Amino acid sequence: MLTGAGVSAESGLGTFRDAGGIWARFDPMKLATPQAFAADPDNVHEFYNARRRNLVGARPNAGHHALVRLGEGLAERGGGLFLCTQNIDDLHEQAGSRAVHHMHGELLRALCAGCGARTVWREDLGTGTICPGCGRAGAMRPDVVWFGEMPYGLDAIEAALEESDLFVAIGTSGAVYPAAGYAAQARAWGLRTCEINLEPSDNAHVFGERLYGPASEMVPAFVAQILAEAG
Ligand code: BJW
Predict the structure, then answer these.
(1) Residue nearest to atom 4 of ligand 1 (CA)
(2) Residue owning the nearest CA to atom 47 of ligand 1
(3) Which of 152, 154, 195, 144 lies closest to 172, judged by CA?
(4) Residue 204: which of 163, 172, 160 has the closest Cα?
(5) Could you say which DSSP state residue 151 is in?
(6) Using CA atoms, how far apart are residues 216 and 113, in angstroms rounded to an integer?
């Protein structure tokens, strides 16, 4: 299972590439690259501080809750769910999903570029923030994956894909790699593949099944169908 910004859209968190989305209002090259952070850390901190404050008030929607039921239902039947999200929010966890794989990091964590410590973080970050690990200031950044950086846990994702019989992408435009490549890989390996999105994504043609509509409606219906099929 791969989720993207669309699953959190109905919880009030903006998507990136829709009309009026985050990258329509802000230049990703000035905010979501290591070079941008090196050039203007205050600007990047301000952008993520605002999004962190917004996230603290956000709550999961019926799509997130349905994925909890899917995980539990598959476990009861002797199966399992590998939930990989590109989202840096914690709405899957708030809903009750466990062991969520955040391949693009987490907004509620800080990373010290000096010592590598990753710390749970709910407050604003700034250039003067002191790392609780090494005690130094000046190297704290949001623990998120920017363009040009290696996403987290790619080996674990590939291993989970290899063991799966179903790959589902929910609420993602299929514009960002390597995440966007998993559907084609899954298809090539013979997995059943399904896209759930508001509209066809960039790689919609790759999926064997396509369901279009809001995640809060489509995901609960899909989960009910999968659990019924599983018996
Ligand atoms: C709804 C809905 C509703 C709305 N219900 N649906 C080829 C191979 C490998 C890499 C590259 C490559 N070509 C280029 C690259 C480099 C680059 C890349 O992909 N660039 C592209 C722009 C072309 N990738 C990278 O740099 C990555 N690292 C990397 O490649 O390392 C080296 C490497 C090489 C080879 C193999 C492995 C590794 C890192 C990418 C980091 C992305 N970071 C961001 C920011 C994170 C922090 C933050 O949040 O600020 O991650 S960018 C942004 O995009 C964010 C998202 O996770 C990511 C994906 O966006 P997502 O989730 O798909 O959102 P949207 O807005 O695009 O789509 C939402 C969808 O939902 C839409 O379709 C709507 O219709 C739908 N929707 N409402 C259901 N209610």
Answers:
(1) 6
(2) 144
(3) 195
(4) 172
(5) P
(6) 37
Structure tokens that stand for 40 in this block: 């203007």
Hey, what amino acid is at 231?
G
Helix axes 215-230, 62-76, angle to 10 degrees: 10
Mutating to test ligand 1, I would choose from 177, 201, 216 the residue with most ligand atoms within 8 A of its C-beta, which is 177
Averaged over successive runs of 10 residues, the pLDDT of the chain (231 residues) comes to: 98 95 96 98 98 96 98 97 98 97 98 97 98 97 98 98 97 98 98 98 98 98 97 90
**Which tokens belong to 118?**
């990753």
* Look-up of token digits 């709550």: 59
State the burial class of residue 69 (Cβ atoms within 10 Å of its Cβ: 0-12, 13-18, 19+). middle
Measured from the CB, is residue 114 less than 6 Å from ligand 1?
no
